[in-house]
Amino acid sequence: MPIAQPKITPFFPPRRTLMGPGPSDVYPSVLAAGAKPTLGHLDPLFVGMMDEVKTLLQYAFQTKNEMTLAVSAPGSAGMEACFVNLLEPGEKVIVCRNGVFGERMRSNVERIGGIPVLVDDEWGKPVDVQKVADAIKANPDAKFLAFVHAETSTGARSDAKTLCTLAKQAGLLTIVDAVTSLGGIELRVDEWGIDAVYSGSQKCLSCVPGLSPLSFSPAAVDKLKARKTPVQSWFLDQTLVMAYWGTGNAAGGKRSYHHTAPVNALYALHESLRLLANEGLDNAWQRHAAMHELLRDGLEKMGIAFVVDAAHRLPQLNAIHIPDGVDDAAIRARLLNDYSLEIGAGLGALAGKAWRIGLMGYGARRENIALLLKALSDVL
Ligand SMILES: *Cc1c(COP(=O)(O)O)cnc(C)c1O
User: Fold this and answer.
1) What is the mean pLDDT of residues 229-250?
2) CATH number of the domain that 369 lies in?
3) Looking at the whole model, is its pTM more than 0.90?
4) CB of residue 76 inside a 6 A radius of ligand 1
5) What percent of the chain has pLDDT over 90?
6) Residue 306's beta-bridge partner residues?
7) Number of separate helices (H) and strands (E) present in the chain
8) Which residue has the least CA distance to atom 14 on ligand 1?
9) Which of 71, 72, 76, when mutated, tests ligand 1's pocket best, judged by the most ligand atoms within 8 Å of its CB?
10) Of the residues 58, 141, 205, 323, which has the maximum number of CB atoms within 10 A of its CB?
11) DSSP-assigned states of every residue in 213-266
């Protein structure tokens, strides 16, 4: 008896307009880059491209950090890589929690056996600088301050520069989630004194999902090298990964196998970062701000209100109140089915109460805003 063969036809995804919290619309040339011939991951030509990815990531993060690379997994793995490499059991971390991702930071700290000291703020509010200053004062034994720069679950932007300044004054290392901020709003890793930062390929970089840009300052690398206990995660252990990316003097410029790099996804990242460098980082920040204003004006004309105060809004993630009496799921389904347009639902405290409209990377352009405003006014 032959083994029964499943009969499956090829998958043809429709063309959608992605205006949720990510993934965002991927640049056409980024999709095309991912379809180029696969090279061996130790092929000298591929290694040369990886060096360019590193240079481009240093530009995007505004850092000179030698240890700058992309983790071969989504943003959540970048988060985990920061905590699992830098934190040892028993160490104290001040964790700011004003949405979903701050809560995930707390969970990372606890799983490692660290001690989280929580600074809680309401969903939709930025991290309160005064509360952080108080927590630092009350916990002189804390080693790290961890917070989310751009809280994608609520659309709130926190003052990363001031928070990092407070941490530096107290001698703390900083761990910053820049998954949604990288490429969308001002982010200056070296100038602000960020020690460990991670992002994601699929938000304002408009690349395919599955990669997490990461950068460690020299102080973070020293902390990693001074560990008394081995990093619990083999895959995310950056002392091992460094030898593959050729970062750090341990590598001596030579590459050795750690895991098979996601070669084609890295072609895509190379192209998306190249586009960002071509546009210019400050121009990209400016474009996100301008597109946010256009969207805001249109939504306000429809009587729709924002969740976050104007002063702390993220241009790339617009959380809006669902109008009274409107069926959340039914409207999102109509946008998807009739307009091939995706927006995001509310999460956690905002579930059923808010929609999240992303204007990220390639998605932050006039035609997307025109489509969204037209579609929303049709279905409401
Ligand atoms: C999306 C996101 C993450 C997680 O990234 P994944 O690529 O989904 O794993 C973490 N933090 C923030 C702020 C995010 O927006």
Assistant:
1) 84
2) 3.90.1150.10
3) yes
4) yes
5) 94
6) 320
7) 13, 13
8) 179
9) 76
10) 205
11) EEEE-HHHHHHHHT-SS--S-TTT-HHHHHHHHT-STTTTT----SS---HHHH
